Amino acid sequence: MASSGRGPFSIHVVVVVLVLLQLLAAGAPVVSASAANNTLRPGEELPKYRRIRAHLKRLNRPSLKTIQSPDGDLIDCVPSHLQPAFDHPMLKGSKPLDPPERPKGHKAGVPTDDNIQLWRTSGETCPEGTVPIRRTKEEDILRASPARRFGRKPVSRTRRDSEGSGHEHAVGYVAGDQYYGAKASLNVWAPRVASSSEFSLSQIWVISGSFGSDLNTIEAGWQVSPQLYGDSSPRFFTYWTTDAYQATGCYNLLCSGFVQTSNRIAVGAAISPTSRYNGVQFDISLLIWKDPKHGNWWLEFGSGVLVGYWPSSLFSHLAGQATMVQFGGEIFNTHASGFHSSTQMGSGHYAQEGFGRAAYFRNLQVVDWDNSLIPAANLKVLADHPNCYDVQARLNTAWGNYFYFGGPGRSIRCP
Fold first, then answer.
1. d(CA 152, CA 308)
2. Which of 191, 220, 342, 347 is 20 to 30 A away from residue 284, measured at CA?
3. Cβ count near 88 (within 10 Å)
4. Which residues, in sequence order, are CB contacts of 375 under 8 Å at separation 6+?
5. Which of 30-39, 114-123, 315-324 is modeled with the greatest confidence?
6. d(CA 39, CA 1)
């Protein structure tokens, strides 16, 4: 920012005014003054603005229809062949594939998605042949730190070697075999996130490679991330990487890669309703599996709704199979106050509180070499900061392998 003294400050004001006049003359929308003051330095205003506008143009595609969500989101109905996925060099000229067969043992119900996401509450949906994409706004990119990593997770976030990275987990996992997918049901909460640069999530990880620079992951679940979305609502999300979150992959459709096929689910849109403490529990089912015919990894959300797929050509290790499947919660702790974060995981309550009070994953299954869903045997659990967030595994006939997890973050137990 400007140094003390009237000269530099006056020059900075002149620069900002000239830039704003140029933008207004061009008929372009202007970034708010508060956002500019917090983000841009003298001499950087116009170049950074141009980079942001170019990025928005890449992300926001021509649409046939736009739906206004009650939470302020704009959902654009984009022709399927124009979605960001097909900008990827390996996917150029492609079209979305037809759905594959579900794994054996999958009990597919009638696809229902009504009242799962806020944007659908009006009854509107996108036309056939289009996909609903949450529109990215200037302020979304300006919140990212740094802006060039917009849409990506902070690096060094693997479960192993997570000590000191800021990423904290309470998870159940299976390893030591070959896995071709995973399925589970998880309840949805709206945990409190203490800082805009922190997040809290609940998800499935499908993992291959070492926990180094060649890590491949496919991820899906719900998350609260004020920095990414600008609010505190739990949102359905996807993620992928082929290099341990360094330069490849992204959330949702914020880069080329994931191919969406559904016109009824918007990746990145808010989930509604959510679970209530000592009240009604609302959970969602997620299924990720590898199509034996073409090798792509497909995603099903809710009761039978196919969202889309990650092409196998995106990956190195996951072009074959996974070597680990992980279920559970994660938070990002910035230690902003010098203490542990008070960001909640799950419901914000510890695992021992059980049903109606703690977050859970139930009916944990994996997909084997024969494209069959089987129970997730030899499930192990791990909480890397158990005084802050813990996990307890259980087993019964109705829920199969399941576990409770979560916690409040900073507390008497977690100073």
1. 20
2. 342
3. 17
4. 364, 365, 400, 401
5. 315-324
6. 9
Q: Could you check whether the bond before residue 29 is cis, i.e. omega within 30 degrees of 0?
A: no
Which uninterrupted H or E stretch holds 260?
strand 259-260
Residue type, 355: F
- Summarize pLDDT for 122-160 with one digit per residue, the tens: 899 999 999 999 999 999 999 997 888 899 987 654 444
Please provide the size of the chain in residues: 415
∠ CA 356-162-187, nearest 5°, is 20
Q: Are 222 and 235 in contact (CB under 8 A)?
A: yes
The SS3 of residue 224 is strand
Taking the C-alpha atoms of residue 83 and residue 15, their distance in angstroms, rounded to an integer, is 37
Contact 197, 144 (CB under 8 A): no
How far apart CA 79 and CA 305 sit, in angstroms, is: 19
Token match 């392998």: residue?
401
Query: Domain map of the chain by residue range?
Result: 59-105+113-146+167-407
- 184 neighbors 204 (Cβ within 8 angstroms): yes
- How far apart, in Å, do the first and last CA atoms of the chain sit? 35
Q: What's the Cα-to-Cα distance from 183 to each of 42, 179, 294, 377, rounded to whole Å?
A: 51, 12, 20, 13
Q: Which has the closest alpha carbon to 173: 160, 164, 187, 161?
A: 160
Mean pLDDT of the 147-176 span: 77
> Quick one: which of 370, 5, 329 has its CA closest to 168?
329
Range in 90-104, 124-138, 307-321 with the lowest mean pLDDT: 90-104
Contacts (Cβ under 8 Å, ≥6 apart) of 65: 76, 77, 126, 127, 130
Q: Residues 6 or more apart from 20 whose CB is under 8 A from it? A: 30
Nearest to 329 by CA among 345, 352, 349: 345
3-state secondary structure of 10: helix
Nearest 10 degrees: Cα torsion 135, 141, 143, 148: 150
Count helices and strands (H / E) in the chain.
5, 18
Q: How far apart are CA 37 and CA 16, in angstroms?
A: 10
pTM over 0.85: yes
Contacts 24+ apart (CB under 8 A), 1-7: 1/37, 1/41, 2/42
| DSSP assigned state of 114 | T
176 contacts 183 by C-beta, under 8 angstroms: no
